[in-house]
Amino acid sequence: MHELLLFASVPAHQHHELLQQLAGLTAMQPRHRLERRLIFKAYRKPGLMNTRVGASQDLQGLELQRLNKMLNGGMFYTQVVGPVAETDFGAKPSSSGDAHVSISGLEDQSSPPYSYEDQPWKLEFRDIPEAGTRSAVTARLMASATLPKGDITSPMNAWGYSFITEYVVEGDVFVLNDIVIFLHRVLLYPTGAQESHGPRRQLPAYRELSPLERTGSYVLQAAITVQDGGNQEMMRTASQHLFGLREQLKSAVRLEQADRLSLDTRAK
Amino acid sequence: MSDSFSLPLRPLTEKRDHPDTLPIEIAQINARWGSFRDINEETLRAKIEEEKNRDSWSDEDETDKPAEDVDTTEQREQLYKRRAEILQFAMQAHMEALFALDFVSLLLSKHTPRQAETSMSSFLKQVAPLGSLNAEIVNPPPKSDAAVQDVKTVSRGWRVQNFNAAANKLLNSATRLEGEVASETKYWDEVLSVKEKGWKVCRLPRERQALGVQYGFLEATPIFRDRGLAALRRGENGSLRLDKGLAPQKTRTVRVRVKHRGQLTGCSKLPESPPDTVSVERTILQARDTVYEEELFHELMREARIMGSQGVTTRQNLVRLPISQEQEILLDLVDADAPADDAETESTEHDVLADGLSHSIRILLAYAHRQNLRRRTQPPPALSNKRRHTPEYQLLRPVMAYLQHSAHVRWLESFLKDIYGVLRAAGLQCEFQAAPFSSVSLPRMHPAVPKVEALVQQFLMPFESTFSGNLVTPQSSFRVKIRTNPVTPPFGSLYDISVDLPHHAHVQPPSRVGLQSDAAAALTHVFKLDIVSAIAAHGSKSAPEGTKKEGETGLTWEAAYPHHGELLALSATGRSKKLKVTLSRDELTAETYSMRGIDGHGQAAGTKPPSHSQTWKSEQTDSQPSLMDFVAEVSREQS
Q1: For residue A224, which residues of chain B lie inside 8 Å, CB to CB?
Q2: What is the ipTM of this complex?
Q3: Could B383 and A226 be called an inter-chain contact, meaning their C-beta atoms sit closer than 8 Å?
């Protein structure tokens, strides 16, 4: 699958107004979305690379060649995305003592505690945007897959990915025909005492998160996914749709192509 | 209007301070008519006559009158002549203008030769050198006082006249503006009142300077969604007018009729015709209703086409929905103000049903709209060549499923009532319970789904009704489930019969029965089997008591051919007896035949008349011996 994107920067003071404009344009109420995003980096497992064995290369089967290519090809960072609710933040873990719960129960009795074991995950792979495209949109290869619930580090490790860092994305989603409009910003966890080597099992209070961009500005992302990236006509239609949106939003924000290298996901 | 306007626009016409003195007037009269001495009566009369006969246009009329009589050729000639004249005049004017231009150019050529040269004619350039004409200001000779006075008076007159004209124009336009303002105010007041009622007022996308009101449904099919916008135009006097473009102005509505045995027995209520005072609000509402109704019918048609396999037929403006053998539903789109054809409707028996149906299809369309919104706001699938097919809304299918289901339930209930009536008449104690629409349970709602949607969702799921009851012998029971699936195949209603017969543990009716007659046959058979085993059980139980009491050897019945309802009894004397039980919806019959030999099937039972026979019917009132009494009696007689 391919993804076509346009981006715009939205200052914090324009956020509320733009939300209303988008709600009017798409004729729908915004869907609030909160996501944990974990960054994993692929690494080469030792002992899996010595497939090149002298002159026998010519004799390698097609399957083996493909495997070789996969193993020795480019290494990428990938994201693991898990939806969370605002009540999950700052919630006490379910395993805490009874006395503790009764004290804290005053403030937040109704919300169930955040359970890391039940956290659903989704793997999102994004390639570096295509270079040298004439069209004024960012196009890149993408793929998504559902992952098992709960602790994700061990399966990811087994697949050759190591945990790097994590952050939270907060925003609102609109849908306009085929275009998904995501007005979001990145929130960072408080730089606390323990820098863990894995995903957090509990989430800090929501107000403790700080935006990555100090001014609190948002990013507007308009995206269309295309099933077959080789189909030029479909790609053109998708870009046309995006350009149409750009024209419609011209008086509010300036949607434009992103810098290709800033979206580079290759691991060096 | 101009009188009431208070702006002092008109010039002040001051009265002459001193009117003309008499000597001046006398002098004027003398100058015009001659001396007073010449006046006598005749000349005055002649003058008056002359004045009367001649009006100001008489000269021209005299020349024009014969022109009307001339024929066409002359007319044409005259036309040409006039045209030539006009041309001549124009040429002359042109020439004079050129001369003037030459003159001014020559005059200017002294001071600005370059510029003046461009506007000089070539002839003038040849004959007169540049700058050969000069102009100087000379002092005009002083005018006489009288001439100065004249000029002053004339120019004053002109000025007054011009002021008057300007004032008139201003006052006229003020009047016009005032009217305009009034009608604009009225228009905007009405627009505002429309907006305050909650309608969405916006600019028209195609016509940016016009206002429109959106009354349609955002989630409707695109063609109907786009029709939900109409322009708000200003009428002559500023009243608001709804301009729907080419869409028909008539109010249309979907009508539901019920046909029972070929006769129309019910018709849904049409919306009452609007009152005479047509307000804009009213018009908008009417337009909205019409759009909704037309969409409803469009969707009904679309759905009806995929339901051809279930016997639904469509005409240009009609959908026919068969419900049962004798009932069908007709749906059509009619004008709301069309006169109701009372002649066709035979009775109003099913009016309530038709009304209920018309309400439910509308509710279902609203539900489909909500589903559309839900689908639209979900992240879309990746773009591909395959076009997303919008599924047909579920409008007719749930209605049809409900009606069919309730028809089946009612039939089964009446069938069981009949059977149980017969059994009770025969003195057999048993009962059944009906739980129609047991699948519809309203408390079972998902909290995330809005109440309204959850409520409708219940009626889109398969309908299920259960009937259960005990049979004659203890511990035996039956259970019938009727399932009707509105959306996914298999369509139609299915009977799921399960029985628990301790005496015939292996007997199970077919699990899915589609036809009413098959279900009836299966149930009757089960009942018959049970009665047979009840008689057998009863016999074996009562026989020892009978020997004690009366010293007789009562017969013991054995269920020889239970599936045919036949029992055999063998007495000590070797004579055997056969009891045959037949059960139908209307009656239960028990017949006994006396036989020789052990096996009952060796002789044809039909050839010999039964020795005893008894029939029970559900509606009979006179007391008869019960089935068990009858059996006990025939057992005793044997000995």
Answers
A1: 383
A2: 0.76
A3: yes
